[in-house]
Amino acid sequence: MTGAHSTLKIQRYKGLQQAIPESTLVWQLTGKGFENFRLEEIPVPRMGPRDILFRSDSNGICFSDVKVVLAGPEHPRLKGYDMERDKVVPGHEISITVVKAGEEAKDRFRPGSRFIVQADMIEHDTAVGYGIWGGMIQYGVFDERVQEYLIPVEADIGYSQASLVEPWACIEASYDRADIYPTDRIVWVVGGGGPMGQMHILRTISRKRRGHLGALRSLLVTDVSDERLAAVRRRFETPAREAGLELLCINPLAGDFDAEMKKLAPSGVDYIVACAQLADVVNDARRHLARYGVLNLFAGLKRGTGPLHLGDIHYDQHTITGNSGSRLQDMEKVLRLAESGELDTDASAGAVVGMRACAEGVKAVAEGRITNKTILYPQLPDLPLTRIEDLPDIVRFSAAVERDLRSGVWSQKAETELLDALLEI
Q1: 52 Cβ partners below 8 Å, 6+ apart?
Q2: DSSP tag of 301
Q3: CB neighbours of 344 closer than 8 A, spacing ≥ 6?
Q4: Cα gap 122→127, rounded to integer Å
Q5: How many CB atoms are closer than 10 A to CB 170?
Q6: CB–CB of 221/232 below 8 Å?
Q7: Average pLDDT, consecutive stretches of 10 residues, N- to C-terminus, the chain (425 residues)
């Protein structure tokens, strides 16, 4: 176990009191599959007069990273991109610190300033983590194009808190056109056992607790994994009950699911969030949608999949809304909520990993071994993939933080103590 931390390290880290290294570790993808996803040590990228050199402080690992690794050059985002020559560096849930600005960028970016990134650069037809090198690097360069999509972190929040703004912005954006009504009684999260499904659960419980969903009485979560459902039950049953909600966790493959649904919601479910990626599963769930109900298509369904019966939507007066990302305004909204303390983005953290074990972290996401978000800390090269509750086995924390960690609770205080203990400064 690593010894007790020293606050001097984190102060030096935040104050950029360490020299910029000559080389950086980076995960590069040169083709399709994990066999082409390799850790390299390269010179720190050269910065032009209009560029900024940044330090990658944290990066949330997303299932989108899995998709780009598995698809390689066949990924739609990489059409026309020479992956073998130019490489792909995944990672778009990034929290960065500017360490140096080019002569023509000095007025806008000062060393020590922090930012998050809106990865989808629509105006430039590319994205960070795809055609633009992303956050799975220790030190990188962003040009003028990316700088247009940087959002300043204005408060002293944790690095992981900032990284997790991006997936939370996707969650919030999915409700932008059709949110849960105060009169809705039953919300159903289909495929709710994964990281994004759990974020929808957290949001619903939080809104109920804050008094926005007065009529809501039941929160149904379905998943084909009993292990994931058990994790959801352990984590959310008490908070749901305290908020005034009955949490129901059901495996649709076990027993007579239709009969259970008719008993639970004889008039149908008011709001369905679909986190399942199979059109047949989503359409089957839609059979249970109440009149005037909403179907929120959140998961990564492929274009051209799934039948749509327009007459049924018309006569049942359903609203169907879809979402596959977030906009700059969504990210800024969520970042300010995190900075004010109204939203704890760290509630989504389930594991941490250092640079050398990053591929293991991506594989764990691909295999569903981590049921919540995994945070990469590029400046901690030797941190193994570790669940939050197991961190006290490898790092010594203060007593109060250790108690929280053993309960699976990640926080800025825990992050600070982790960095203090393991930073090589």
Answers
A1: 98, 100, 101, 102, 105, 109, 141, 142, 147
A2: P
A3: 161, 338
A4: 8
A5: 21
A6: yes
A7: 65 93 98 97 97 98 96 93 96 98 96 96 93 98 97 97 97 95 98 94 96 97 95 95 97 92 95 93 94 93 86 94 91 96 95 98 94 96 98 97 97 97 91
In angstroms, the CA 323 to CA 182 distance is 22
Could you list the residue range(s) of the whole structural domain that residue 261 is in? Answer: 177-322
Gap between the Cα atoms of 149 and 377, Å rounded: 22
CA distance 201 to 196: 9
Question: What is residue 162's predicted lDDT score, i.e. its pLDDT?
Answer: 98
Q: Are residues 51 and 159 in the same domain?
A: yes
Say if residues 235 and 201 touch (Cβ distance below 8 Å).
no
Predicted local distance difference test score (pLDDT) of residue 4: 46
Domain at 193, CATH number: 3.40.50.720
In this structure, are 318 and 331 located in the same domain? Answer: no
**In the beta sheet, which residues pair with residue 121?**
126
Phi-psi region of 386 (alpha: psi -120 to 50; beta: other; left: phi over 0): beta
Whether residues 142 and 157 fall in one domain: yes
Judge whether 172 lies within some domain.
no
Same structural domain, 205 and 157: no
pLDDT of residue 304: 86
Sequential DSSP letters for 120-135: EEGGGTEEBTTTB--S
